[in-house]
Amino acid sequence: MRKRKCRFCGREARLVVRQANLALCEEHFISWFERRVERTLRRYGMVGPGDRVLVAVSGGKDSLALLSALATLSERMGFEITALTLDLGIKGNAYSERSVEMARRASERLGVEHIIVSVKGRYGFSLPEALRIDRRPACSLCGLIKRYAMTDVGREGGFDVLATGHTLDDMARFILASYMTGALRELVRLTPVVEPRLPGLPKLIKPLYESLEEHIKIYVDIKGLEYIPDGCPYALTAPSDRLRVLLDQVEQESPGMKHSLVRNYVKHIQPALSAYLRDSLEPLRACSKCGMPSSGDICAFCRLRERVLKRLKR
Q1: Tens digits of residue pLDDT in 82-128
Q2: What is the pLDDT of residue 145?
């Protein structure tokens, strides 16, 4: 088979972006990937000059790619970044310990300030302790804790923006899962940007919203960033993995399908669904205990915390 040349420099290509039939050398793949993230930032108005951006970094490939790309783009676009890693207290495979270490190394290498927050130290309980008491699926409970803690730290630090490493693959899977289960209120919130729902809170953005995980892995490998290869031990039981396999198979047969699914959702389905649900969505208020957004008097996290600490007698 004839070897292909890089579209931009004519050197031997190391990879081909199948969705665009674009042959690239390693150097121009890095540039292509970071420009793609920049286009996502600009397309959805995610950041502006002078913004202070808190970047959630778990130690996995997605969040490390996010941190690296934003570190490069922050100079070009005029915003500031700080990394945040949550220590959830997961002992299996020494996951939390390795997460913190991988994030620390990457932040140090990229010259980015790094904040480490122990969930148990800040709120009085770890994720494994909460799982022993609450019957919700591990990923659901973990998501509640992480969303709360990241937003809480962002609020406390006066950050304008909170960036998470949700990928195009994640969004395609979430959209399909929400559709299949009829979770319309969850579906309508799967947007690239979530504006602050109360004063003083950071805007939530997903800069990898249009980036495939296969490209993300190539990016971190070329950049030489160390990451946790095996993921969270609790994720092994996640039912959404079946949807991941299905979507990967369809993408393999029809390159660009995930991008088409997500882009059409943002452009057509989400606005229509948002208008349809406008009068039925519960207005948010400040939690009476912590001041974070809540549909009731007390937010879900504070209810969880009270129940867990009571059972743990703390």
Answers
A1: 999 999 999 877 899 999 999 999 999 999 999 999 999 999 999 99
A2: 98
**CA-to-CA dists, residue 143 to 147, 157, 206, 232, 295, angstroms:** 6, 21, 15, 13, 17
Query: Which stretches in the chain have pLDDT values below 70?
Result: 1-2, 236-240
Question: Is the CB of residue 39 less than 8 Å from the CB of residue 76?
Answer: no
Decide the pairing of beta strands 113-118 and 161-163.
Answer: unpaired
Q: Are 36 and 70 in contact (CB under 8 A)?
A: no
Q: Read off the tokens for 295.
A: 């549909």
Structure-token pair, residue 176: 């399909």
Contacts of 6 (CB under 8 A, 6+ apart): 12, 13, 23, 24, 25, 28
Stated pTM of the model:
0.94
Quickly list H helices, 182-283. 184-187, 213-223, 241-253, 257-264, 270-277
